[in-house]
Amino acid sequence: MLHQAEIQVHAAWLAWLQTPAGAYLLAWLQDRLDVMLADEFGYFAVQCGMPNLEGLRNNRMSHRIVLQHPLEDGPGEHPRIWVDSFAALPLASASVDLLLLPHVLEFSPDPHAVLREAQRVLRSEGRLVIAGLNPWSLWGLRELALGSWFGSSLPMECRMIALGRLRDWMGLLEFDMDRGRFGCYRPICQTELWLERWAWMESAGDRWWPICGASYVIGAVKRSKGMRWVGLIPGQKRRIFSRAQVARI
């Protein structure tokens, strides 16, 4: 069962996504994922969390699944499975071709455990895609410099992870980062009117300070040492859930 503290964390994050700034972040992330995941091939694609984001909608894998906490809800036609923690996924080892973690790590009590679990469930050469909030941005600097004076504009439980630190963590788990993009250069605003007034900063930020976007999306490939089969092992059927895990679900 989810601990009360974790329930409050995810409830606060879901509520924030309903604000103008949250909708702005969601729209940018949806556009990036539609492009980034369109040409990823395989059998099984899994999204963890943020069910109101249809991150896999433009992907062409035959099996697309969303894992979510019980309190979350959202649109979409993909199968949805409730889980207690993204650090303990009900998936077989080396079974997933594409794993999407949209703003999961900064709200996890143990982001290292989430990444270790991602490494376990992904097959060799499988792709991991992570969306995160950038502390070296207008949003991050606002929280650092003014949060204690004027209150936080983001959920209090948010712990932003710098891209350099994330790269170090992933390197230890044999992930090779091979693509990425920053976005959301406008200041964090409480109204749509002010977000529109700062719209010019999108093109300016992308040109003049590209690594200072409030959000980033990165892609990485799981590398495994030694020989491996390309495709299925002869005579073996591809299965993402073990029989015991299916019984629990």
Note down, in words, how this protein is organized.
With 249 residues, the protein is α/β, with parallel strands linked by helices. Helices cover 34% and strands 20% of the residues. The chain contains eight helices and seven strands; from the N terminus they run H-H-E-E-E-E-H-E-H-H-E-H-H-E-H. It has helices at residues 4-16, 20-36, 111-121, 138-150, 163-172, 192-197, 201-208, 243-248, and strands spanning 44-48, 63-68, 80-82, 96-102, 122-133, 175-183, 215-222. A seven-stranded mixed beta sheet has the order 3-2-1-4-5-7-6. The longest helix is centred in the N-terminal third of the chain and has 17 residues, at 20-36. It starts with a helix and ends with a helix. The relative contact order is 0.16. The model has no long low-confidence stretch (mean pLDDT 83).
Query: Total number of helical segments?
Result: 8
Shape: globular
CA-CA gap between termini: 14 Å
Please state roughly what percent of the residues sit in beta strands, choosing from under 5%, 5-15%, 15-25%, 25-35%, 35-45% or over 45%.
15-25%
Content-based structural category: alpha/beta
User: What order do the strands of the largest sheet run in, or round the barrel if closed?
Assistant: 3-2-1-4-5-7-6
**Chain oligomer state:** single chain
Topology as a string of helices (H) and strands (E): HHEEEEHEHHEHHEH
Question: What is the percent of helical residues?
Answer: 25-40%
Radius of gyration: 18 Å
The total beta strand count reads 7
Average pLDDT rating: 83
Can you summarize the main beta sheet?
7 strands, mixed
Weakly predicted, low-confidence segments: none
